[in-house]
């Protein structure tokens, strides 16, 4: 048997003439350089203002493009860190024609020095879909930014006067506790279900102005049941945790759409808290509305998780576990309803 010839090795050189750009490119204590070395197959050697890549020509091409995107971020005064390297590499490995630097510098909203942006290619496509369509469904696991980005787009639309008000709503469905057993008034009982929406609002709007905006009706946060019988004009309407709506509730909500309004529906079909035997409106709506003009379904995945890296690994582990359970005939969690929820 003939011996397999060794892989072709080549060298590619990148010259960074500006010393400050080179310092920014390598990162504090070379943390960005180490992240690059751990992310590419080529050998990376830095000497002075020159970077030498040694390896297979195709691997060198990816590494060269990675450094090019990172330099673009540096030129846009972005602070590089290992996470920016990881997200850029993921986009390049996906074979996208989009420039990762364009994705990572797409500003949606800025407040007190904090800028909200998409951090993955799917998130950018999701944000673009919200701009281009009247109704958008953002479906994906926890931590993928589907609600947070939609909230940022809602605040942006209000600030630029594309809409006159924001309406945020969630189904008041319990996950292990019953509303009737919670202490306080009806508002007190419902408030815990709406609290994540208030938390996001506080990140994007001056907290002192929120009560005034709510009192004026410019921002409304209410349970899904309160939407019945209304026509919502000139509004950005966000339905969160939509997997806990029934098909009837989903139809009721979508038909609230009025003139000059936009709807974003977010949820995770693997986290259904409805009582056993009830179907999730989010699970069936894709089959019903697929192909309808001006309605878009954006699918986010574990690769779009922007929380701790382990969150993506946890999502993948549960997906594999559900697949194994389906194989042996046990209904997955999203079908079993609350009776099958884990603790």
Total number of beta strands: 11
Give me the secondary-structure category: alpha/beta
Rg (C-alpha, Å): 24 Å
Q: What level of helicity do the residues show?
A: 40-55%
Distance between the termini: 58 Å
Q: What is the overall pLDDT average?
A: 86
Tally of individual helices? 13
Low-pLDDT regions: 175-179, 334-343
Summarize the structure.
The chain has 343 residues and is an alpha/beta fold.
Any overview of this molecule?
This protein is α/β, with parallel strands linked by helices and 343 residues long. The protein contains 13 helices and eleven strands. The strands form three sheets. The chain has a six-stranded parallel sheet with strand order 8-7-9-10-6-11, with helices on both faces. Helix 3 crosses helix 4. The protein is globular and about 70 Å long. The chain starts with 9 loop residues before the first strand and ends in a 7-residue tail after the last helix.
Main traits of this protein?
single chain; 343 residues; alpha/beta; 6-stranded parallel β-sheet; 3-stranded antiparallel β-sheet; 11 strands; 42% helix; globular
């Amino acid at each position: 048997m003939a011996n397999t010839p060794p892989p072709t090795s080549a060298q590619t050189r990148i010259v960074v003439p500006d010393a400050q750009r080179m310092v920014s490119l390598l990162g504090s204590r070379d943390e960005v350089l180490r992240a690059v070395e751990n992310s590419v197959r080529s050998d990376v050697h830095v000497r002075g203002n020159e970077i030498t890549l040694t390896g297979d020509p195709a691997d060198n091409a990816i590494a060269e493009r990675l450094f090019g995107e990172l330099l673009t971020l540096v030129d846009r005064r972005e602070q590089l860190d290992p996470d920016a390297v990881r997200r850029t590499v993921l986009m390049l490995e996906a074979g996208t024609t989009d420039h990762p630097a364009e994705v990572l510098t797409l500003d949606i909203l800025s407040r007190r020095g904090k800028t909200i942006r998409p951090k993955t290619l799917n998130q950018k496509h999701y944000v673009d879909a919200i701009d281009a369509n009247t109704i958008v469904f953002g479906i994906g696991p926890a931590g993928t930014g589907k609600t947070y980005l939609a909230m940022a787009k809602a605040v942006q639309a209000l600030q630029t006067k594309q809409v006159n008000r924001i309406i945020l709503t969630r189904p008041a469905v319990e996950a292990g506790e019953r509303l009737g057993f919670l202490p306080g008034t009806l508002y007190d009982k419902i408030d815990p279900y709406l609290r994540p929406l208030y938390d996001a609002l506080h990140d994007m709007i001056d907290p002192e102005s929120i009560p005034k905006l709510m009192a004026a009706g410019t921002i409304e946060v209410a349970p899904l049941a309160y939407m019945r019988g209304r026509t919502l004009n000139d509004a950005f309407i966000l339905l969160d945790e939509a997997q806990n709506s029934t098909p009837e509730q989903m139809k009721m909500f979508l038909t609230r759409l009025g003139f000059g309004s936009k709807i974003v529906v977010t949820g995770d079909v693997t986290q259904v808290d409805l009582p056993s035997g009830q179907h999730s409106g989010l699970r069936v709506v894709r089959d019903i509305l697929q192909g309808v003009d001006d309605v878009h379904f954006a699918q986010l995945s574990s690769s779009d998780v922007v929380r701790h890296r382990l969150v993506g690994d946890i999502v993948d582990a549960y997906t594999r576990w559900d697949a194994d359970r389906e194989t042996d005939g046990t209904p997955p969690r999203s079908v079993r309803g609350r009776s099958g929820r884990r603790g």
